[in-house]
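Bug report

Summary: structure tokens for Pre-mRNA-processing factor 17 differ between web form and batch submission.
Environment: batch mode, default settings.
Steps: 1) Submit the sequence below via batch. 2) Compare with the web form result.

Sequence submitted:
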Amino acid sequence: MSAAISSLVSYGSDSDSENESESNTGAEKVDQVGPDATAHLKPLQSGHTMSLAVLNSAPEVAVKESVETGTHLDPSLKEVTYNPTFETMFAPEFGPVNPFKSQQMAAPRNMLSGYAEPAHVNDFMFEQQRRTFSTYGYALDPSVDTHHVSTSGYIGAIDEAEKNKGLTVFESGHKKSEKRKKIKGGDAGEIDNFLGPWAKYIDEKDMAKPSEEEQKELDEIMAKRQKKGRNEEEAPGEEKTILHVKDMYDYQGRSYLHVPQDVGINLRSAEVPDKCYLPKKQIHVWSGHTKGVSAIRLFPSSGHLLLSCSMDCKIKLWEVYGERRCLRTFIGHSKAVRDICFNNTGTQFLSAAYDRYLKLWDSETGQCISRFTNRKVPYCVKFNPDEDKQNLFVAGMSDKKIVQWDIRTGEVVQEYDRHLGAVNTITFVDENRRFVSTSDDKSLRVWEWDIPVDFKYIAEPSMHSMPAVTLSPNGKWLACQSMDNQILIFGAQNRFRLNKKKVFKGHMVAGYACQVDFSPDMSYVVSGDADGKLNIWDWKTTKLYHRIKAHDKVCISALWHPHETSKVITCGWDGQIKLWD
């Protein structure tokens, strides 16, 4: 220590002598400038000693006292330049230390009861061992190597483990006892032999059984029924046709499909009558069907022929003008015919029947061109109205699907499967780019052609099923016969909104798919009803203008002739088709 001081003093004396020489030279210079200007540069002298400036070249280091007192650490710091104590590291961010916080409370927790370390246990293995323990009372000891399991490797009922050879609940299974008591009347698990829960109380002596002869007769009847049912399902009805007029062709070689020129109006033009009037009286009855008529369709564009289908399994073609004869009968369905549809030219038409077949017919010759089926009942059928898609048609089926067929190949080319009930109607809108379908699920769906996902779905809690839909002549509106005894009008362009101002009421129609129609000039709306009446409403005011007793039974369809001012055709379940004017 003394050596260090002596060296420091010698260093001081050396520096003093150097300072004195520098000060002398400096004094000479300063004298030239002036005594007052250099007064602050002269060192203060107290005798022969002088104050020294101590230089600290070491970095600042925290002293022991500051560490022990617990200097606050910023929790956002990533690096610490000294070794802090545990208390400093785990001190609270702000405020004093909680004196009541125990070590257990301070410990990190990831669940309510503490900290659970992740264990790599297969979920299935855990569940398997848990169930085995709850069933047999033993399970594998998880702390023992499972590859070398002995009876000591189990916990719980080790005796039971030895007895079962350590099998788990999934491996052993509960085998039914072979000595199980045989229940009289059979076991409910064996459905073929089960005679019911009361069978064990019945004495076989008291049971009435058919005699041998009666049993033989019953077997024959059942065999016939089964055979008949198989034949009906497998084989379609034989197709034939009956021509009811003497000559199929006139003196010019024209068939009945030729549009007549001598009926007083131009049936070839696309012009619509300027003003329509209410029909007042019946002018003709077409009778020939032996059962109720299901649907009627006018010949495309001209309307000079009328096609009807009936529950007597027949389809008939009638003249609308002239003698109004029955021209041809088409026979080929074994059950009631539900719907019919002409193609654009009227040379062919489709029929849909309850025998699960759709058939394509030639309107002129009566020949059945082809038949289609997917083993489901078709409820409605429609050709695609586009000229370039006349080989395609769609049918609404009883199995909730809309099926699209190609006539050329006879194969299903698309299925629209979104409805939740049987499909009742299909109506093409928006220049045939889209079609609207209604169903027993009380909804209305709008589809893009050939895209099997509906882009519009309309279903309200207040809505009822709508089993009959008609597009207005101007293509702007859809008239839907609702099962709550009213006709609803939906927009057929873009939004498909319900027009709440246009609701047609006053007729009783619940339970029947009565077809609605418009007058060509959009002045009137016509519909049949359950009482056999023809109802006519005004389009603008929605008032019920006229009601005619048309049929003895349900009036199922009403068509306003597209070229006539006041001619309406109705059909009913009394088997008659009537013309009103």
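Above is the batch result. After comparison, the two runs are identical; trailing whitespace caused the diff. Residues 1-34 have pLDDT under 50 and may be disordered. Residues 240-267+277-580 form a domain with the Methylamine Dehydrogenase; Chain H fold (CATH 2.130.10.10).
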